[in-house]
Specification:
GO biological process, one term: intracellular signal transduction
Largest sheet: 7 strands, mixed
CATH architecture of the largest domain: Alpha-Beta Barrel
EC number: 3.1.4.11
Keywords: Cell membrane, Hydrolase, Lipid degradation, Lipid metabolism, Membrane, Transducer
Number of domains: 3
Helix content: 10-25%
Radius of gyration: 26 Å
CATH class of the largest domain: Alpha Beta
GO molecular function, one term: phosphatidylinositol-4,5-bisphosphate phospholipase C activity
Distance between the termini: 39 Å
Shape: globular
Membrane topology: Peripheral membrane protein
CATH topology of the largest domain: TIM Barrel
Structural class: alpha/beta
Number of helices: 15
C-alpha cells in the first residue's frame, strides 16, 4: 500500500491510498476448491488446468513447468517451489505466461491450399510515413509493416525528375520521394523477419518502357532466386507453403506513361473526422458508400491483357516478372467478376466500389474469390491515412484488404486482431463457408439470418498496470482514474455488438467483476473487441488500452489479456484478467 497526492489548487492537496491488486472472489473460490489447507499442489493445478482452463491435453509435467516458471519470475521462493499459495496462484493467472491465445499453437492451419484461400495481411501505400498528401516517403514504414507480419507491400513507382531513374511516391501530391532500389533492398532484408510465408509486392506503375526495363533489372538483381515468376498466367495460385521465402510481383502493364498531376490543395479535407481521442467507432458495414468525393484515380485496374497495343508498350523483361496479373476486364462489374477456368488473376476495387458491388453482386464476389484474388483499397479522400471497416471485404472473401498501416484507430485494431491468428504469419485460412458452395450450389450470404452456433461468455474481473505505465496525472490531474471497459464482437452483421462495464471511480486497479454473453452465428469470422477508457465528466473520455482477438483461437478459462496503445504497441504492464467460456 502507498499514498498518492494530487494538487487541486495552490493550498489544497488530495491524498489517495494505492493498494496492491487482490484476487477477485471467483479466483479465491477456485483456489479454495483446488487446494488443500491453503496450498495448491501440482496435482491440484493439473486438475485446474483441465477442468477450468479447458486444457484437455495438459499433463502433470505442464503443471510443474508453470511452477518452475513462477519460480524463475520470483513469484515463488525456493521453499514453495512445489506448491502455490493464493497470492502466487493469482499472480500466475495474471502473468504473461497465461495469455488469451496459445503461443504454442503457432502456425497450425493448412498452408497447402492456393493463395486465394487465405486472408492476407495487406498494406496500402506502404511507403508513406503519415498522411496521403504531404508526408515523407521512406522504407521505414515498409520495414515496420514487415515486422508486424504484413505480407503485401504496395509501391507506387514513378520516373524521377531527370526521367532516368525510378522513385516511389504518391503521385500528384506533395509527398517526398524515396528511391525504389532502397525500398527493394529493405524488403529483401526484412521480408521474412517474422514469417517465412511469401511477400507480394503490388506495383502501381507509371513508368516508360525504358524505366520498366530498369525496374525489372533492379528487382531481378535484388531478389535473385527469391523471386517467383511464371512464363504465363497461372491456372491456379500456388500455396503459401510452396512459396516460403519467395517474393511475388503483382501489377498490370500500364496503357501509357502517366504524368504526375499538379496538386490542388483546395478542397483537401480530411477523409474522416476522428472526433474521439482513440479513433472513431468502426462504421456500419452496411454503409452504402455514396460519397461523391471518392477518387479512385491512379488505382484503376483496366485489363491490359486484352489490349494488344498496351503489350507493345511494355518491356518484355518487366512483364515476365509479373506472377499475379491484375486487371478488371472489359465491360462492367459482371465482366470484372468473371471466373476464367483457365487462369486466375487479381482484381482491385475501392472500398466504395465494394460497398456498391456487394448489394448487387454479393454472391458473384464470393464465387470470384474462391479462385481469384480480390484486393480492396481505401477511398481516395482518406487523406489522413485513416481506414475503413474490413468486414465488408472479409465476409465476401476478399483476400487483400489494403490498410494504411501508419495510422491508428478501431479499424486498424480489427486488422491487427485478425492477423494475430495462425501464429501471426500474415496468412489466415478463410473459413469453409467462404470456400465451398452449400446445398443447391448456394454460396455464403453474410446478411442471412443464421442460427446461433455458439455463445461466448466473457467475465471481466479486473485490470492493472496503468499505475506503472503512466504518470499519475495522465488521466486526471486531481484524482486517480475512473476506468470502464467496453467488450464486444466484430463480425457479420448479426454478431456485431458492444457492451460496457460500470465506471469505477478513483481506482488504479479497477475490479469490475461483470459477465457478458455474446451469441455467435459465424464464430469463424468473429473478433473479440476489448477497450478500456477513463471517464471524464467535462471532456472526452481518455483512451486507456485496447486489444482485438480472434474468437476461433481464444483459450477458454481465466486469462491475462495484455492491452495495446492506439497504434497497436503492447503496453509493458497494462492487462485485464478475464475468463472465456463457450456455452
Amino acid at each position: 500500500m502507498s499514498k498518492q497526492t494530487y494538487r487541486v489548487c495552490f493550498c489544497f492537496r488530495r491524498r489517495f491510498r494505492v493498494v496492491a491488486a487482490e484476487a477477485p472472489a471467483d479466483v479465491k473460490n477456485l483456489f479454495n476448491r483446488y487446494s488443500d489447507n491453503g496450498v495448491m499442489s501440482a496435482d491440484n493445478l493439473h486438475r485446474f488446468l483441465i477442468e477450468v482452463q479447458k486444457e484437455e491435453n495438459a499433463t502433470l509435467e505442464d503443471a510443474h513447468a508453470i511452477m518452475n516458471n513462477l519460480h524463475d519470475l520470483k513469484i515463488l521462493n525456493i521453499f514453495h517451489r512445489r506448491s502455490l499459495h493464493l497470492d502466487a496462484f493469482f499472480k500466475y493467472l495474471f502473468a504473461d505466461i497465461n495469455p488469451p491465445l496459445n503461443s504454442k499453437l503457432g502456425i497450425h492451419q493448412d498452408m497447402n491450399a492456393p493463395l486465394s484461400h487465405y486472408f492476407i495481411y495487406t498494406g496500402h501505400n506502404s511507403y508513406l510515413t503519415g498522411n496521403q498528401l504531404s508526408s515523407d516517403c521512406s522504407d521505414v514504414p515498409i520495414i515496420q509493416a514487415l515486422h508486424r507480419g504484413v505480407r503485401v507491400i504496395e509501391l507506387d513507382i514513378w520516373p524521377n525528375s531527370a526521367k532516368d531513374d525510378v522513385e516511389v511516391l504518391h503521385g500528384g501530391t506533395l509527398t517526398t520521394p524515396v528511391a525504389l532500389i532502397k525500398c527493394l533492398k529493405s524488403i529483401k532484408e526484412h521480408a521474412f523477419a517474422v514469417s517465412e510465408y511469401p511477400v507480394v509486392i503490388t506495383l502501381e506503375d507509371h513508368l516508360t518502357t525504358a524505366l520498366q526495363a530498369k525496374t525489372a533489372e533492379m528487382i531481378t538483381q535484388t531478389f535473385g532466386d527469391m523471386l517467383f515468376t511464371s512464363d504465363s498466367c497461372l491456372k491456379e495460385f500456388p500455396s503459401p507453403e510452396s512459396l516460403k521465402r519467395r517474393v511475388l510481383i503483382s501489377t498490370k502493364p500500364p496503357k501509357e506513361y502517366l504524368q504526375a498531376k499538379e496538386v490542388k490543395e483546395t478542397g483537401a479535407t480530411k477523409g474522416t473526422d476522428d472526433t474521439e481521442a482513440w479513433g472513431r467507432e468502426v462504421s456500419d458495414i452496411k454503409a452504402r458508400y455514396n460519397d461523391k468525393y471518392d477518387s479512385d484515380e491512379g488505382e484503376a485496374d483496366d485489363d491490359d491483357e486484352e489490349d494488344p497495343t498496351s503489350q507493345q508498350n511494355t518491356a518484355p523483361e518487366y512483364k515476365r516478372l509479373i506472377a499475379i496479373h491484375a486487371g478488371k476486364g472489359k465491360g462492367g462489374l459482371s465482366d470484372w467478376l468473371r471466373v476464367d477456368p483457365d487462369k486466375v488473376r487479381r482484381l482491385s476495387l475501392s472500398e466504395q466500389e465494394l460497398g456498391k458491388a456487394v448489394v448487387t453482386h454479393g454472391k458473384e464476389i464470393i464465387r470470384f474469390t474462391q479462385r481469384n484474388i480480390l484486393r480492396i483499397y481505401p477511398k481516395g479522400i482518406r487523406f489522413d491515412s485513416s481506414n475503413y471497416n474490413p468486414f465488408n471485404a472479409w465476409t465476401h472473401g476478399a483476400q487483400m484488404v489494403a490498410f494504411n498501416m501508419q495510422g491508428y484507430g478501431r479499424s486498424l485494431w480489427l486488422m491487427h486482431g485478425m492477423f494475430r491468428a495462425n501464429g501471426g504469419c500474415g496468412y489466415v485460412k478463410k473459413p469453409d463457408i467462404l470456400l465451398k458452395a452449400g446445398p443447391s450450389n448456394q454460396v455464403f450470404d453474410p446478411e442471412a439470418s443464421l442460427p446461433v452456433k455458439t455463445t461466448l461468455k466473457v467475465t471481466v474481473f479486473m485490470g492493472e498496470g496503468w499505475y506503472y505505465d503512466f504518470e499519475h496525472t495522465h488521466f486526471d490531474a486531481y484524482s486517480p482514474p475512473d476506468f470502464y471497459a467496453r467488450i464486444g464482437i466484430a463480425g457479420v452483421d448479426a454478431d456485431i455488438v458492444m457492451k460496457k462495464t460500470k465506471t469505477l471511480e478513483d481506482n488504479w486497479i479497477p475490479t469490475w467483476d461483470e459477465q457478458f454473453e455474446f451469441p455467435l452465428t459465424v464464430p469463424e469470422l468473429a473478433l473479440l473487441r476489448v477497450e478500456v477508457h477513463e471517464y471524464d465528466m467535462s471532456e472526452k473520455d481518455d483512451f486507456a488500452g485496447q486489444t482485438c482477438l480472434p474468437v476461433s483461437e481464444l483459450r477458454q478459462g481465466i486469462r491475462a489479456v495484455p492491452l495495446h496503445s492506439r497504434k497497436g504497441d503492447k503496453y509493458n504492464s497494462v492487462k485485464l484478467l478475464m475468463r472465456f467460456e463457450f456455452i
